[in-house]
Structure formats: C-alpha cells, structure tokens
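Consortium newsletter contribution from the modelling node. Members have asked for a concrete example of what our holo predictions look like. Here is one, prepared for the flavin-adenine dinucleotide complex that several groups have been discussing at recent meetings.
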Amino acid sequence: MKELSEIQGIGRVLQNEPMKNHTTMKVGGPCDWMLVPSTEEEIIQALKTVQALNIPYMILGNGSNLLVRDGGIRGAVIKIGEDFSAIRIEGETLYAEAGALLSTVAKRAAKASLAGLEFASGIPGTIGGAMVMNAGAYGGEMKDVTVRVRVLDGETIREIPAAEMGFAYRYSHVLPKQWIVLGAEFSLQTDDAEEIQARIDDLTQQRTTKQPLEWPSAGSTFKRPEGYFAGKLIDDAGLRGFRYKDAQVSEKHCGFVINRGNASFQDIQTLIESVQKAVYEEFGVHLEREVKVIGEDLCE
Ligand SMILES: Cc1cc2nc3c(=O)[nH]c(=O)nc-3n(C[C@H](O)[C@H](O)[C@H](O)COP(=O)(O)OP(=O)(O)OC[C@H]3O[C@@H](n4cnc5c(N)ncnc54)[C@H](O)[C@@H]3O)c2cc1C
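And here is the predicted structure:
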C-alpha cells in the first residue's frame, strides 16, 4: 500500500518501522506505517486519513508501558512524541502538548520555580501516556496536579476537567472513550527553583539505586497483587537474576524484567510465563502483567 506516504498534512510518514526503536523494552517487529504528526491539525488529519482508508491504528507515546510482539503491527501507529511536545507556562499554570516527556516537563517547571511535578520526573512516559495511566510515583499521581485535559473525541476537540477524567489507580477514561490526548494543563505552586531541583535529584537518586535503569525494560512488569509485592514474591521464589536467553529478572529489582541486549518479545514472554508459573506454584498467587502487549506473532 503506497497511499499513506503520498498524503500531505499527516506528519512524517515511515513505512515498516521497527517498533523496537520506539519502545523502552527494545522489542517488537515493524509496524506497516508510522505517522508522526507535529501539530493538532496533523493529528486530526492523520486520524481522518487512516479511518477513511480503513487502516487499523493505535496511538503511541514513548512506548514505556508497551510490549510489541515480534510480528509487529498491521496498520498504522500514530506516534505522539517529541514532534508534538511544546510546553507553555503562564503564572502557576503549565500546559504541555501530549508528546512532551514527563522528565522534560518536570525540569521546565523546576526552572520556572514551579513545584508539583517532581514525583513524575523519573517516569519515562509522555504527557499523553501519563494521562492514560494516571501515572504516579513516590506518593504523587497525575490527578493531583491536572486541571484539564485537551482531547480529540471523534472529530471534536474537547477540554475535559480533571474531575471528569475518571482518574483512579493507573486508570483514566482515555482508552475506554477512545480519546486522543492532545495536551494537559497543570496547576503548580511557586517555590524555590533550587529546592525543587534538589527534590528531583533526590528522587532520581532513589530510582537509580533501586531500579535497573541501565537496561531496557518496560518498568514494573507485574501489577501489585493484593496483600503482596510482586518483586518480593519473585525473589522469594528464588528467581532473582533468572534468565531465559537475553530476557532476565533484574538482579537489582525482581519486579522488573530486563532486556540484556537481544531479547525478542517471545523471549520476554517465555520468561514472564515461567515467573508467573513459579510464583503460582510456590505461593498460589497469580501475577498479572502490568504492561500492555500489542501486535502480532511472527508467522512460522
Ligand atoms: C524504567 C521505567 C520506570 C517506570 N516507572 C513508572 C512509575 O514510577 N510510575 C508509573 O505510573 N509508570 C511507570 N512506568 C511506566 C510508564 O512510563 C508509564 O505508564 C507512562 O505513563 C507511559 O507513557 P508512554 O508515553 O510511554 O505511553 P505508551 O507506552 O506509549 O502507551 C501506553 C498507553 O497509552 C496510550 N497512549 C499514549 N499516548 C497517548 C495519547 N496521546 N492519547 C491517547 N492514548 C495514548 C497508548 O495507546 C497505550 O495504550 C515506568 C516505565 C519504565 C520503563
């Protein structure tokens, strides 16, 4: 299919783009098309185009909560990332386009002497992904600071007040309502820039000490089972450092599965299933995957 690369106004168009280059776990086969819009108009046009051509599509942020299968993705991936990531500050209000990284937004806020986003500075996602997941860490979550979210709802742009976003633990209405997040407005408080930066540095230090940030991963692989900690169960089952090919349970934090270099999706999946089986046999607890799996298996 040649059509998409010939269409204007839908952003950059890439064909057969390896998804391993767009996910933090660094696995995943190619998507047929990747559209990379840089304005709201291009996002709207990209959506209209794939719908008119009956091409299945999905929205991608920074790919930090996704595992893509080795056969890749049939259809189009609309990547809302750094090409659409402007940040505007007015008084104590910060607006960020959906593709801005949380780390960049937190840094910009700190520079402008605005506190409130420190908790998010080490979460490697975009504003869009963070609105989908109500991302949170160290006692803070997006819902604490969000005033309203700008979304594309069908063909209409709407400003959704935070109270109507359905924010809950790692949940919002974005996916069920099939909204596309265009940006979000945050209410922050004036504080001393150096103190804000010191809090960010402290949280960064805590993350670097505890999490295997030196390896590709998708963050916490499993949800926290009620009454337990996934990492502790995995450790207690004797699986610290357990490895299948290049997929490994992190030695630093057992709740993370890491890619030691050349793991495929299937290697990661095999390891995840072995961990689930071992923990269930040992403790009778089912570990549910936290990361989303998308795409197709390789054809034999
Ligand atoms: C090392 C590491 C540490 C992490 N630590 C944390 C943590 O402390 N706390 C935490 O909450 N998470 C954490 N995560 C997980 C992840 O960073 C968050 O879930 C983040 O919010 C995902 O954002 P993303 O842009 O990468 O989304 P993606 O992974 O690209 O997408 C996730 C979902 O959101 C959808 N989506 C993305 N952008 C949009 C948009 N603009 N409009 C509509 N839908 C969209 C996608 O279709 C997909 O369904 C961590 C991940 C890693 C790798």
